[in-house]
Specification:
312 residues; 5 helices
């Protein structure tokens, strides 16, 4: 708050502004005084307005003027005072509104400044933290710089060793390249030999395949001939089997017929033996010679029967 302003100075400034026919306001009083806070000037202007009526009553006392003139002066002064009071009331209302607006502006400005102050404090804190971080980073960088110097010396040594190793490897690569060229030449010659050998093998393989195809055709012909012969042999065997079957049937028929004849002969022979035995009982002496003749006949008949069976 600005200091050094008094009520008398505010009263004098307000009287001067009022004497100039203007309404004393906070801005005008402050302009006249060149200093003072709006709140202090407003409070002192309220005091000046409260004392203005008493001062006017003191000025209205004109003891040495004639009665009509004094009354006229009093009426004129009252009218002027009423108009001035009315004008002052309107101006005070305007000033009050302006003061409220100024207060609102000051409040907003104060809030803005407070926000800016907080932002500034935040930025200061951030700057402090950044400074601490930067100092720590600088210390770290100093340490890293020292380490980098040591690392650089080590890297220089490694570079020299790598250079020597690279030169040695380059020489080895050149030697390997020479041997590789020789190997490629040898490989090309071996490839050419292998290709020639492979072509010879392919030619022999083609010849073998051709011979195999010819042998296959010959074996196919032989197989067809053998198959044909086999079919003919099977046909002949089937024909012989059918003929044999016919002969077997004829033989079975002959055997059955001969079996019937043998049965008939055996029956006749049995009857003949029976008759002979009967005759022998009747005449034993006479039966000897007939018996012998019968035996001879039976033997002759059996011999003939045995001779006839194989022929049939």
């Amino acid at each position: 708050m600005t200091r050094g302003i008094t009520q008398e100075q505010v009263n004098a400034a307000a009287d001067a502004i009022l004497g100039a026919g203007e309404n004393p306001t906070v801005e005008k009083v402050r302009t006249v005084l060149g200093t003072g806070s709006p709140n202090t000037i407003t409070r002192m202007l309220d005091t000046w307005r409260s004392q203005l009526g008493e001062r006017l009553r003191q000025l209205s006392a004109l003891p040495e003027l004639p009665g009509p003139v004094g009354q006229a002066m009093i009426d004129l002064w009252r009218l002027a005072s009423e108009r001035a009071e009315h004008a002052l009331t309107n101006r005070m209302a305007d000033q009050q509104a302006a003061l409220e607006a100024a207060r609102a502006d000051l409040t907003r400005e104060r809030e803005g400044w407070e926000a800016r102050l907080q932002a500034a404090e935040t930025r200061v804190a951030q700057a402090q933290a950044a400074r601490d971080l930067a100092e720590h980073a600088c210390a770290t960088l100093d340490s890293q710089l020292q380490d980098s110097h040591a690392l650089r010396a080590d890297l220089v040594q490694q570079r020299d060793r790598l250079q020597e190793t690279g030169d040695q490897q380059r020489r080895e690569i050149q030697s390997f390249q020479a041997r590789l060229d020789e190997s490629q030449v040898t490989l090309q010659m071996e490839r050419a030999r292998q290709e020639a050998h492979l072509r010879a093998i392919e030619d022999r393989a083609h010849q073998e395949i051709d011979r195999a195809r010819q042998d296959a055709r010959q074996w196919q012909q032989r197989y067809e001939t053998a198959e044909r012969t086999h079919r003919e042999a099977i046909t002949a065997m089937q024909n012989r089997q059918e003929s044999s079957s016919d002969r077997v049937r004829h033989l079975e028929q002959d055997i059955a017929r001969q079996a019937g004849q043998i049965s008939a002969l055996e029956k006749a022979l049995s009857e003949a033996h029976t008759a002979v035995r009967v005759k022998r009982k009747d005449s034993p002496a006479a039966s000897k010679s007939p018996g012998k003749r019968g035996q001879r006949k039976n033997a002759s008949a059996r011999t003939k029967g045995a001779q006839k069976r194989p022929d049939k």
